[in-house]
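Homework help board

Subject: predicted structure for assignment chain

Our instructor gave us this sequence and asked us to write out the predicted structure in token form, then describe one feature. I got the tokens but I'm not sure how to describe them. Can anyone check?
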Amino acid sequence: MTTLTPTAVAVAAQSVRRSFGSVHAVVDASLTVPAGSVTALIGPNGCGKTTLMLMLAGLLRPDAGSIRIDGSDPTVDGVAVRSSIGWMPDQLGVWDNLTCLQSLTLFGEAYFRPREEARQRGIELLEKVHLTEFAHRPARVLSRGQKQRLSLARALVNDPSVLLLDEPANGLDPRSRVELRQLVRGFAAEGRAVLVSSHVLSELDEMVDDAVFMSKGRTLGAEADALVAQARTRYRVTALDGAALVAALTSLGEAFEPLDADGAVGVTVTNREHAARLLSALVQAGVPVDSFASAGSALEQTYMAMNEERR
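My token output:
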């Protein structure tokens, strides 16, 4: 992973720990998120992701370790941290009888904005997340996906430099997921630091610049880096003539394994140059190659490999 200079780091956590009685939710977590980038926080349910994000947001105090948000410690200077952070929880808590615009206006006023300024900000944000038509309708009429978009708008009320997004794609339809990806990349382009936790790993592949993996309360460093590199060397190959593909791979001395009922085979390459040479050799051998690509999402492959390694 990229080594960052101190001035580039917007979010930094070092050896953070948090327990709830005998339950050790976060055992040893460290991560950095640079300004102007998107970092994924990935791990199975119960691994400590949400607890870590709550600590980063200043909503839980760590038992040990250090956290800095734009250089401020949330346990010491909570006001500065809260003014820097936009927090989008997994579940949106709303006042069902308030309209979407009233809800955003109220949150704007909570950040000491004059009411009319807060209302105008709410109008702009509802347009940004494509909820303008619901501005004057109560939140109770929103679908799960629409509530997610309202939650995202709420996280942006204070124009934060850091966004913490916990499962933002939950309940979103395919079009809304594309729009979410575009929004998140836009936030990074504006110079914001974005940390996003999600189980929709195929979406994260096209959204993030870096990834931090968690397992059993710990973030994985060099171990996860090695798994990411390994995942990116697996390719899925199909051909109109499966027998010719198998014969050519055997003749070339390439190890392969069957992947699915469609006749696809999996090959492991050392790097992208090796992949390009292999594809060229298959074509020159007369194999009618139908597809030749990475075997799915690199993050998904890494996630699966991580769980296999740590059973």
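Reply (TA_rk): Your tokens look well-formed. For the description, you could write something like this. Confidence is low (pLDDT under 50) at residues 1-7. That's the kind of observation they're looking for.
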